[in-house]
Amino acid sequence: MGALKIVLTVFFIVVCIALVVLVLMQEGKSAGLGAISGITETYWGKNKGRSMEGRLVKFTTILAVLFMGLAVILNLNIF
């Protein structure tokens, strides 16, 4: 069981580093001057889920769930 805990810990560290990198790659959520003039609903705003930013958000969510799951599993002390 000790080898399984080591493998899970290494995977946890990789997930942590990847999560930090993905969060730093994302753009800020501030609307900027577009919110003042009402130009927030543009083509890029409507199709944000298909863009690179949308994929970053999806991957961040997946890694956050993995992070929480691994943190709980590693702290159960069943190994």
How are helices and strands ordered from N to C?
HHHH
- What fraction of the residues are assigned to beta strands by DSSP? under 5%
Number of helices: 4
How would a crystallographer describe the biggest sheet? Answer: none
- What is the β-strand count? 0
Tell me the helix content.
Answer: 55-70%
Query: What characteristic shape results from the CA principal axes?
Result: elongated
Quick gist of this model?
The chain has 79 residues and is an all-alpha fold. Helix content is 70%, strand content 0%.
Key terms for this structure?
79 residues, mainly alpha, 4 helices, 0% strand
What does this 3D model show about the protein?
The chain is mainly α. The chain is built from 4 helices and no strands. α1 packs antiparallel against α4. The longest helix has 24 residues. The chain is elongated and about 55 Å long. The chain starts with a helix and ends in a 5-residue tail after the last helix. The mean pLDDT is 83.
List the helices and strands and how they pair.
Blueprint: H1 2-25, H2 34-37, H3 43-46, H4 52-74
Helix pairs in contact: 1-4
